[in-house]
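Narrative progress, year one. The postdoctoral researcher (J.K.) led the effort to move from monomer predictions toward full complexes, under supervision of the PI. The following entry was the first complex the group processed end to end, covering 608 residues in total.
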Amino acid sequence: MFRFIARRLLETIPVLLVIITATFFMIRFVPGGPFTAEKAVTPEILRNLEAHYGLDQPLHRQYFNYLGDLLRGDLGPSFKYANRTVNEIIFDKLPVSLELGAWSLLVALCLGLPLGTIAAIKRNSFLDYLCSGFGMVGICIPTFVMGPLLALLFGIHLQWVNVSGWYGPADRILPALTLGFVYAAYVARLTRGGMLEVLNQDYIRTARSKGASELRVIFKHALRGGLLPVVSFLGPAIAGILTGSFVIETIFQIPGLGREFVQSAFNRDYTLVLGTVILYATLIIFLNLVVDVVQVWLNPKLKFE
Amino acid sequence: MAANLSPAQLPSAAVNPADLESGSSLWRDAWHRLAKNKLAVFGGVTLLVLAAICIVGPWFSAYGYEEQNLNNTFAPPGAEHWLGTDQLGRDLLVRLMVGGRISIMVGLIATSVALTIGVIYGAVAGFFGGKTDSIMMRIVDIMYALPFTIFVILLMVFFGRHIWLLFFAIGAVEWLTMARIVRGQIMSIKKMEFIEAARSLGLGRRRIIFRHMIPNILGPIIVYTTLTIPAIMLLEAFLSFLGLGVQPPMSSWGTLIKDGAEKMEEYPWLLLFPGTIFSLTLFSLNFLGDGLRDALDVRAAKD
């Protein structure tokens, strides 16, 4: 297993290098620099600004300088926010996005797993149709429709929670529900499918015939195998939740990294864009690795290869 | 496409011998099964109606999609403007229909891009197998783990948010699952007799792949395509919602929903109509896709 993890980690390095290089040069070959938006900059000041940020050096020098700084964990200064480093901005905003992501994942699992399991056990009953219908609704109503609708209902009409902001615990409810709902729908669908497959297996019949209670059969025997499709879905789900938070943060005005990223791209804040892309890529690749390890751990039939 | 399929070419597992004797083809069978699925029929009919309205509707509208009327802003739905007007007094109905055209275009063009890349990539990987296959699929695995949405966002910001770029950028990121499915299917028919027969006739690789293999895995390809279209339309709306897709005064369902969400407190219809139509479209596409999957009995595309 350690060899598997070590090999995957080694594989990560060239992938990240490709991402960094591609993003770095893509940004530089774009018309318009970070200072073109600021009005009335004399050529002299522009030159000073560029010298200050090292933009006057040849491109390959800038690239290797950036890589060198990156190795030391320094993502450079922000071009837009004077006197702030990208590291500071990320440390400031990332916890918010991570918290939102964690709550959403919790919503997805706490809603999706029970619903999917119930649907599988009560197959083709009214309950099943209800759960599957929920799954369809979640998949077909996108977050940017669901979010405003929930805000309209619970924020404006019922006035239970604030429509936007990120202050008290109550402000977490709507964003987490909105983002988690879609994934809850997928989780429910996959759980149902996985459980149905497992419940027909011989070892479940054996467990039943040995007199194990229905609850024991489900929780002790069936869930472990039935959850495999869900676990393999968690990788893409985590990536989706992280990028999905761009929209959620915009709708509910949450000061997270997602909104900052979109804004930084508009501002052509090179270093902030690069830093965020690197961070997201690393995060997603790492979480995918964790998911793969959990998957093999749950299913002895798979091997670390 | 059905013409390409003589019964002898069909993978034996998919064909019931009884059907062959009665002369009924796999496709006709599938069609009958589909027609019996009420949800799928509902989805298909809804899509046709919506598409017809969106394509033809704007020609019959009394208003242009960018025609402003500042004396009649935020008009509620009524006889004059069936779905009301927005902050510039533009007719919501005609904007919704024009936005629908964009969604249809995205659905068709971006899906074709994704389809072409995915099918060719998957077919090549599956056909050659061995090292070629393991390298190609490892690349797909790695790309699965990348934050592609981020790259589409960067592309759109930096290269001018052009609508054709949007189509291709979306198509270029949505081909991965198609490649996986096609590869698996190609692997499973590679060893069948009719492929061996084609080889022994001395046919070239390209001819075998495109004339003999791909026509035989059309079922999974069609099913997965119908399930890719909603994902692609969703991505377009997502980008437009962030202000990165279709640019004003052009309308798209994503931008309409975004504008509606900003004004929903006082003028909820601006959010409700586009939101409902968009969700209805996604529902219909998914119902149709699920129905096709059951009708063609495709298991590979299940998740």
